[in-house]
Amino acid sequence: MANYNSIEKVISAEILRTNEDNLLANKICNTEFVGDIKKKGDSVVFVGLSDPTVYDYTGTVTYEDIDDAATQLLVDQDKAFSFKIKDIEALRSSIGLQESQTKRASYLLKNEVDTYVFGLYGEAGTTMSAVSVTPANVLSTIAEMKQTLEEANVPDGKTWIVVPPFVKTKLMLAGIKFQINNGVNGTGAVAFTDELGCDIFVSNQLAVSGGNTMMLAGSYSSVAYAEQVLETQVIDRLENSFDKAVRGRLVFGAKVIRPAELVCCPVSDGGNSI
């Protein structure tokens, strides 16, 4: 069997690079974990999540044990891709191209991860009443979510909101200019700090429940996320076939670690009339 170690490393790097550039979970979540991920079922630890207590000084100093601040995250999600190829050199030369099979596999893995992370909306500390969003009420809806986070002591510049594309349209009709629009499926981000002190991201992977899209806002410490590309492999010859194949696995986990700093607002498309 041929040694495809170098191309396997390149494919693995492409998955990680795609996630780094396009995965919203990597942009909005706390990813500072301690520990090694070698298989599904491993756990990693997020440390320093609790604030120390401030007390009246009366001449005596006491030291609290904050070991309980360590939050353990179970890496329990395991996603894979696999496809046949005829020519290994054609695969090698296509890596990095926008529409290559490995690039598309990386994007589809990214969508699976974002879908899982946004599916944690039920753990948000606050769920607002459902809103039929229009250009007339979109800013007040976003402002109410931001206010809830401010009341949880999340400062300006430390807040994100993920909206579906139809809410992005309402924001544009309300006069908000999006600075960036990259990635796949029309997703992107806008620097929104001048208006409301938060960053807005656009995604098609937000959960849908009861006919509403579960729009989320939170602090950059509200959700923990960890991932690892476990393996990528080029198979020299499939059984009962002359074809070669490529396969890969990504394991990951996510957890809401500060519910008070996560807000959910069910939204529906109320039309674009101004």
From the structure above, extract its key features.
hypothetical protein PF0899 fold, 274 residues, 7 helices, alpha+beta, 2 domains, three-stranded antiparallel β-sheet, 30% strand, 14 strands
Task: Provide a brief overview of the structure.
With about 270 residues, the chain is α+β, with helices and mostly antiparallel strands.
| Through-space gap between termini | 65 Å
**Count of separate structural domains:** 2
Helix share, percent: 25-40%
Strand content: 25-35%
Q: What profile does the largest beta sheet have?
A: 8 strands, mixed
Shape: flat
Uncertain ranges: 181-186
Give the ordered list of helices and strands: HHEEEEHHEEHEHEHEEEEEE
Task: Specify Rg, calculated over alpha carbons.
Answer: 22 Å
Structural class: alpha+beta
Distinct helical segment count: 7
Average pLDDT over all residues: 82
Question: How many DSSP E strands?
Answer: 14
Description:
This protein is α+β, with helices and mostly antiparallel strands and 274 residues long. It has two domains: 5-51 and 63-118 and 225-256; 125-221 and 260-269, hypothetical protein PF0899 fold. 27% of the residues lie in helices and 30% in strands. The chain is built from seven helices and 14 strands. It has helices spanning 5-22, 24-28, 88-94, 101-118, 138-151, 165-173, 193-196; strands spanning 33-34, 43-46, 71-74, 77-85, 126-127, 131-133, 159-163, 188-191, 199-202, 208-209, 212-219, 223-235, 244-256, 262-269. Strands 5, 6, 7, 8, 9, 10, 11 and 14 form an eight-stranded mixed sheet that branches. Strand 12 (223-235) and strand 13 form a beta hairpin. Helix 1 (5-22) packs across helix 4. It is flat. It starts with a helix and ends in a 5-residue tail after the last strand. Residues 181-186 have low confidence and may be disordered.
